[in-house]
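Review form for a predicted model. The reviewer records the input and the model, then writes brief findings.
Reviewer: anonymous (R2)
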Amino acid sequence: MSSSCDRKILVHPLRKDVDHFTFYLMVADSLPPYGWNRDTFFKLVLINQLDMNKSIVKETQQKFNGGYRCWGSFFIRLKDFNDHKQGYLVRDTCILEAHICVSNFTPKIHDINSLNPNSTDQSSDVRETVCPRMSGSTSSPRASGSTFSPRTSSSDLTIREFLDLENLKPEEKCLIPLLDEMCMWRPSLIENLMKKTPLFRQWTLMSLGQILHFLKTKKVKDMNEDDIEKIKSLWEELANSSELDLSWLEPYVQSALGVKPYIERAKKLKKLKDKVVALDIKMKQLRDELTASQAQYEIARKGLSEVRNGFQEMNINAPIGYTML
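Model under review:
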């Protein structure tokens, strides 16, 4: 690439338990681990080879440094990506684009639909739009916790720009991929968060992330009373205070909250099933014993009949006696 530092494209899931095609940009390892930063505007594109209007575009502004060397996002579910009828993977080939601009101002990058699909460099896996560096002082990118201009478009923002990444705990950082995925499918959440204070945004996203992580990882068999109370408390606070449209998530949360009576009924059902199985086994044993007893009965009855034939019964209680004749 012709920018001041090399970059590379990575294509793999951010986490093993996330079933999505992930595409992100990473600064090459040639730069030192500290003492540098790059304000970068870029656009990542997954081309739909059957219909350009269905190509998936992610635009963002990021400040890369030694501790923050890559950015990416979920693009599409792997199931849809691997389906050649969807147009993203055709003849075992997918087309990815990376448009990069290192500058002091946000560039106007043309919409993906305006790209000429018949361009001679279409076969290239990576494309770059380079803007010249402007003279004057360098403007800092939007930092976590900052306010946003009314002219700022939600498509220019990512979930990371609403969070104080440096102060997040490890268990909170693992929520970011889930929040990225959520905002990819629900961009209106970004628009609503732009109007909120930094502290409120941080609380909202972390609460929402905990709920998403709970629903994503918790199995019904592992849920207990404390889990249900925790998810109930988080959801009520979020639904009553955030003013976000969470109607798409509510059925899943209510389903989780309804797990308690289900578990209790499931336990009762299992107990009754075990009892029925035990009684069934016992009845089978009794039937086997009855069958054996019937066979023994027939043998004994037959033997009795044979012995009784010609047998003259006598009073065994009477004395044998004798006569004097």
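Findings: Residues 92 and 325 are 124 Å apart (CA to CA).
Further findings: The chain has a mean pLDDT of 74.
Recommendation: see findings above.
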